[in-house]
Automatic annotation (TrEMBL):
Localisation per UniProt entry: Cytoplasmic vesicle membrane; Presynapse
First and last residue of the signal peptide: none
Gene Ontology BP, a term: gamma-aminobutyric acid import
Cellular-component GO terms for this entry: cytoplasmic vesicle membrane; inhibitory synapse; presynapse; vacuolar membrane
Positions of region (Disordered): 1-20, 65-106
Originating species: Ardeotis kori
Catalytic reactions of this protein: glycine(out) + n H(+)(in) = glycine(in) + n H(+)(out); beta-alanine(out) + n H(+)(in) = beta-alanine(in) + n H(+)(out); 4-aminobutanoate(out) + n H(+)(in) = 4-aminobutanoate(in) + n H(+)(out)
Pfam families: Aa_trans
Amino acid transporter transmembrane domain: residues covered: 110-506
Key words, A-Z: Cell projection, Cytoplasmic vesicle, Membrane, Neurotransmitter transport, Synapse, Transmembrane, Transmembrane helix, Transport
Record-stated family: Belongs to the amino acid/polyamine transporter 2 family.
Protein known as: Vesicular inhibitory amino acid transporter
Gene Ontology molecular function, alphabetical: gamma-aminobutyric acid:proton antiporter activity; glycine transmembrane transporter activity; L-amino acid transmembrane transporter activity
Polar residues bias (residue ranges): 8-20
Length: 520
């Protein structure tokens, strides 16, 4: 009798423990989103977090009895764990205050619509708006129209992407059945290719992250070279110096130290934009309205399309953001006012800057400022670029490590971490190699506009235009009204044409630049 009683008590204790662990694991699976980060932190550093469970193939499965014999007792109630492919022991539950908990936002309260709007605004008002006046140089009034058009389309595709997260249940209620961009992509490719869509999204994500790192090195070298033209230091040398400063990023374990500078970087960027606009307004009498063209440069305008699209990329983190809002019903309103504000600010900034310098407008608009102002502004921008580099770099490393080295039985290579959780020497070497790769690209292709146009045409258009409209048609086509179908098809066709055209012209420009630099 005593033995039976002890057995029942043990089973009850195990059940309670497993229930508790299941709740904590479920919480870990639904990772949150940190508010008040800077534009690159929002757009890139959290990309890994919000898609982590689907990249790894993680799922909530019932543990099978050990040995798997027939007739074995079914698992106790609550014996559910967050694990890879439903096999193996569950991962440890993150403790309060540790790095994983910090990145996931576990235990943090829901964010308001204003906080969500701050995140979206930072994502689409980053330092890459400095290339927009160059887009007006080659596009004229059509470039201004595209700034407005891209804002409208990206706002719409953000909304339909969120609509793909929901489905109607048996009771006719609209419920959230998906959690991330990768989840939506996998649902569209199921059942024949259940992971193909997620892999495509992840590849696009990695390309965008690495290209963003390259852009930071390029812009750092460019700004320093134009700030101190009298020094016997070339732009390539400045890029090497910047990379030497960034090499410690290979040792990053979390973004706690870097995140402290996020708000400061964002405020500094807004101050820089205000300074540029103030200087332009001071020269309003000399504005060259006659230089704004109604025709376009056929060879270079497609590059401008990529630049404009890249400045609006935010779709990758929207599912996580909407899922962590206090009132998700306010998401549509939040998207409207953030994109309207971005459209107005970007349009005014690009037009005013172009009117000031007209045909002399450079790829990075701050290079047009007088030498006395340019040096101060550019130093602040370089500091911001160097502080922003670790965010996309860390996210890219996390995606690569988890998909290639830590994806359970599906990993392509051995685990790059030892049993004590320390990074192995060859894993550290690969991180350093990624930093060096960004340097080599920045040295051989030191063209900010071309790289930005290529990235926007390839991954920006895909993630913001093509995939959301395609997924919306695939998952919800039976419930769509005719005008929604028309919009989706039109966006897919127009986005595809712009993407292909911009990619081809940007690639041609990069190849020509690469050959020129190789000859030098």
């Amino acid at each position: 009798m005593a033995t039976l009683l002890r057995s029942k008590l043990s089973n009850v204790a195990t059940s309670v423990s497993n229930k508790s662990q299941a709740k904590m694991s479920g919480m870990f699976a639904r990772m949150g989103f940190q508010a008040a980060t800077d534009e690159e932190a929002v757009g890139f550093a959290h990309c890994d977090d919000l898609d982590m469970e689907h990249r790894q193939g993680l799922q909530m499965d019932i543990l099978k009895p050990e040995g798997g014999e027939e007739g074995a007792e079914p698992p106790l109630e609550g014996d559910i764990h967050y694990q890879r492919d439903g096999t193996g022991p569950p991962p440890p539950v993150p403790k309060e205050g540790d790095a994983c908990s910090e990145l996931s936002g576990q235990g943090k309260p829901k964010i308001t619509a204003w906080e969500a709007g701050w995140n979206v605004t930072n994502a689409i008002q980053g330092m890459f708006v400095l290339g927009l006046p160059y887009a007006i140089l080659h596009g004229g009034y059509l470039g201004l129209f595209l700034i407005i058009f891209a804002a409208v389309v990206c706002c719409y595709t953000g909304k339909i992407l969120i609509a793909c997260l929901y489905e109607e249940n048996e009771d006719g209620e609209i419920v959230r059945v998906r959690d991330s961009y990768v989840d939506i992509a996998n649902a569209c490719c199921a059942p024949r290719f259940p992971t193909l869509g997620g892999r495509i999204v992840n590849v696009a994500q990695i390309i965008e992250l690495v290209m963003t790192c390259i852009l930071y090195v390029v812009v750092s070298g460019n700004l320093m070279y134009n700030s101190f033209p009298n020094l016997p230091v070339s732009q390539k040398s400045w890029s090497i110096i910047a990379t030497a400063v960034l090499l410690p990023c290979a040792f990053l374990k979390n973004l706690k130290a870097v995140s402290k500078f996020s708000l400061l970087c964002t405020l500094a960027h807004f101050v820089i934009n205000i300074l540029v606009i103030a200087y332009c307004l001071s020269r309003a009498r000399d504005w060259a309205w006659d230089k704004v063209k109604f025709y376009i440069d056929v060879k270079k305008f497609p590059i401008s399309i990529g630049i404009i699209v890249f400045s609006y990329t935010s779709q990758i983190f929207l599912p996580s953001l909407e899922g962590n809002m206090q009132n998700p019903k306010e998401f549509h309103c939040m998207m409207n006012w953030t994109h309207i504000a971005a459209c107005i600010l970007k349009g005014l900034f690009a037009l005013v800057a172009y009117l000031t310098w007209a045909d002399e407008t450079k790829e990075v608009i701050t290079d047009n400022l007088p030498s006395t102002i340019r040096a101060v502004v550019n130093i602040f921008l370089v500091a911001k670029a160097l502080l922003s580099y670790p965010l996309p770099f860390f996210a890219a490393v996390e995606v690569l490590e988890r998909s290639l080295f830590q994806d359970g039985n599906r990993a392509f290579f051995p685990n790059c971490y030892g049993g004590d959780g320390r990074l192995k020497s060859w894993g550290l070497t690969l991180r350093c190699a990624l930093v060096v790769f960004t340097l080599l690209m920045a040295i051989y292709v030191p063209h900010f506009a071309l790289l930005m146009g290529l990235t926007g045409s390839l991954t920006g258009a895909g993630l913001c235009f093509l995939l959301p409209s395609l997924f919306h048609l695939k998952l919800l086509w039976r419930k769509l009204l005719w005008h929604h179908v028309f919009f989706d098809v039109a966006i897919f066709v127009i986005g595809g044409i712009c993407s292909v055209s911009g990619f081809i012209h940007s690639l041609e420009g990069l190849i020509e630049a690469f050959r020129t630099n190789a000859e030098d």
